[in-house]
Amino acid sequence: MIRTDWTLEEAQALHHLPFPELMHRAQTVHRQHFDPTAIETASLLSIKTGGCPEDCGYCSQSSHYKTGVKATKLMGVDEVLKAAQRAKEAGAQRFCMGAAWRSPKDRDMDKLCDMVRGVSELGLQTCMTLGMLTAEQVARFKEAGLDFYNHNIDTSADYYREIATTRTMEDRLYTIELVRQGGISVCCGGILGMGEAEEDRISMLVTLATLPEHPGSVPINLWNEIDGVPVQDRATPMDSFALVRMIALARIMMPASVVRLSAGRTQMSDELQALCFLAGANSIFVGDQLLTTGNPSPGSDAELLDRLGLHVAKAAPHQDGDGRT
Ligand code: SAM
Ligand code: DTB
Ligand code: SF4
Prior knowledge:
Layout: H1 8-15, H2 19-33, E1 38-48, H3 77-89, E2 94-99, H4 109-121, E3 125-129, H5 135-144, E4 148-150, H6 157-163, H7 169-181, E5 185-187, E6 190-192, H8 198-209, E7 217-222, H9 231-234, H10 240-253, E8 258-261, H11 270-278, E9 283-285, H12 298-308, E10 311-312
Parallel strand pairs: 1-2, 1-9, 1-10, 2-3, 3-4, 4-5, 6-7, 7-8, 8-9
Helix pairs in contact: 1-8, 2-10, 3-4, 4-5, 8-10
The structure holds S-adenosylmethionine, 6-(5-methyl-2-OXO-imidazolidin-4-yl)-hexanoic acid and iron/sulfur cluster (SF4).
């Protein structure tokens, strides 16, 4: 049964279970909904980098901080499609295009929709992450065939206010609801290790698990350190077992969602990644680059999956939930 009525107390009780009990619960639920040996793969492309008007205190692309990231213009459709073709050849199932915007301008919509159509035609699932959308923009993306829209809540409602001031958690939840109502699958998760308390992390998962419908994809990012942003002064390294517990909790509370072990894998050992897969993570970003930071090399990822006897989930293009049994 998929529950959307989780309470913070229930989530905390699960989170604090003895580790073997928590892992058993997570693995039992994982096997009810997915093949535990299947991992989905997504590739990221920054189609418009830097110069962002928002002040998200963790991000290299905000114009409020000196991070050394050079602002670029929106890429051309052909260039994006070439990158998508390369990602497909490298084994990606989903192609996620990200832009450092508060929201897309209407004048860019034709170009963005052409990107969605072109990437779909290559047989890849499509995902965009462009900031806040209007209902009209959602409808246009739906018509163009967009499969997923990524819009993270990033942290708890309380801690969000300390991380960004130019937008609110309510703004984020509003766009997420427009996307859901517009019939596009929601990809929504957050970041760990920004100096938040354990309760903030658990509360973030409760917010996700009590949405009217669980996000189809839940990316769990470890904060990738960026020089020059405010979060640098308050960040605390994530304890490995606390990360695994978060993955297990996401798996138990959102049993049919794909949980992506997202940013931060370059800092993780193979053993820690393996524990995350055992706890229910079943998706990764593949390719050397995330948006402005690095990712493990395709060769090392292929080797890791091989050593663990895991395989890339067989994706039917334009469907979520690949690998479900
Ligand atoms: N501008 C759009 C937005 O904010 O939704 C899309 C791009 S934004 C970079 C996408 C997501 O990347 C953020 O919501 C955040 O969760 C994640 N992110 C950004 N910087 C990060 C970092 N340094 N480490 C980990 N995740 C990060
Ligand atoms: C998500 O949750 N993680 C991705 C994707 N959605 C857009 C972004 C990670 C960004 C990591 C920092 C960077 O590369 O700039
Ligand atoms: Fe801009 Fe997105 Fe970075 Fe915030 S997270 S500064 S909105 S690119």
